[in-house]
Amino acid sequence: MVQHGMQRRSSPGWQAAMDYVKSGQIGKVTLSRGINFKARKSIGKVAAPVQPDANGRIAGTFRDTGGKPQMIDLDYKLWSAPRPVMPVQREQMHYDWHWQWAYGNGDIGNQGPHQLDVARWGLGNPELLPKRLMSFGGRWGYDDDGETANNQLAFYQWAEGAPMLFDNRGLPMKDMNWAKGYEPVFRINGKTGAPRIGNVIHCEGGFVAESKAYDNDGNTLTKFENFDEGKDHMKNFIDSVRAGKLVNSNLHVAHGYHAAALSQLANISYRLGKQISIAEVKERLAADKAGQETLADFMANLEANKIDLSKQQITAGPWLEFDPVAEKFIGEFAAEANQLAQDEYAAGFELPIIS
After folding, report:
1. Taking the CA of residue 133 as centre, how many other CA atoms within 13 Å lie in the half-sphere pointing to its CB?
2. Which residues contact residue 112 at a Cβ distance below 8 angstroms, ignoring those fewer than 6 apart?
C-alpha cells in the first residue's frame, strides 16, 4: 500500500472547501494560489569545507538546529546515496542540505509541495502536468553557503482551465530583523487572506482562503467545519492497509507525484534563469494582473528588507514549454531543461527508466 504525505488531503474541512469550489457557488476558478511565507535564516558560511575520509566517512563538529555544537560521525557515502561523495560545505550537517542543489530543492521543494498539492486540488486535480511554466526569485539578505532561492514565484498554465501561482518568501517583515516578525498573512483587499502558509482559490464571485469562503468584497460567505491539517492522515493509511485498498481516492500517490513534479518544474526554470531588471520582469507579466500584483507585493517585502534590486537583481527563468503527455520539455531551452530534469546516480542507487 502506497500513500502520499500531503496531509491536507485527509482534512474534512479541506474536502468541504473543495466541494464548495466545485459547486460553482462563487463562479469558476480564475486562479489557484499557494503561499509559503516561512522564516529561512542564513545557514552560515564555513571557512573551509569538511572533507570525507578515504572510506567516505565524515567526522567532526558541526552545529545542531538550535545552533549548539554537534559531534558528527557518519557513513557519508551511504548518507549521500545517489549523489557523489563531496565535501560538506555547511555549518549544520542535517536539514540545511535542503538549500544546496546537490541534495535539496529549496523551500518550493520542501514546504512547497504541500501548498502546490492543494492549489492543484483547487483546479480539479488536472491529470496532466502544465504545458507552460516560469519561475523567478533569488537568495537575498545574506551571503551564506545556501544556493537555492529564499524568495521565489512560480507561474503555471495548463492546456485548459485556470492558472496556478506559488508565492514563497523567507525573509522577515522588514530591516532583515527577525525580531520584528515575519510576513503575517497574505492579504486580499488589504484585510482578508490566508495564514503565512496556506492557499487561496480565486473564483469569479469570491474566493476560498483556508477555512472560509468570501465574496469579492471580503465578506464571509461560509466557514468550513472540521478544518485541520489532516490529523487522520496516518489513520487513513492504516485503514487502507486493513481494507486492502485506498479508503479515499485523495490518498493516491499520483497526487504526491504531481505536487513534487510541480516544484521541480519551477526550479528547472529558475536554474536556467538570468539576472534581469525589474522592468524586464514586469514585461513578462504584462498580461497577468494577479501576477503583477503579486510581484509588486513581493518586491515591497524585499525593499522593506533594504534589498536594492538594481544591484541584487531578480534571477528570472524563461517561460518553458512542456509536453505533459511525454513529460518532456519542448521548444526553446528544451535541451537544457531536460538535462536538469535528470541526473547521474551512484552505483546501487540508479533509477530505472520506464517508458
Report:
1. 30
2. 34, 36, 106, 166, 168, 262, 263
Radius of gyration in angstroms for the set of CA atoms belonging to the chain, rounded to a whole number: 21
> Are 6 and 184 in contact, with CB atoms under 8 Å apart?
no
- Reported confidence tier of residue 188, pLDDT bands at 50, 70, 90: confident
CATH number for the region 7-42+108-340 comes to 3.30.360.10
- The enclosing H or E element of 187 equals strand 186-188
Nearest Cα neighbor of 39 from 135, 117, 150 is 150
Interatomic CA distance for residues 158 and 73, integer angstroms: 47
254, 6 Cβ separation under 8 angstroms: no
DSSP 111-171: THHHHHHHHHHHTT--SS--SEEEEEEE--S---S--S-SEEEEEEE-SSS--EEEEEE-S
Contact 317, 270 (CB under 8 A): yes
| 244 in Cβ contact with 251 (< 8 Å) | no
pLDDT in tens, 299-327: 999 999 999 999 999 999 999 999 999 99
CB–CB of 111/72 below 8 Å?
A: no
The pLDDT, as a whole number, for residue 192 is 67
State the cell numbers at 346.
Answer: 551512484
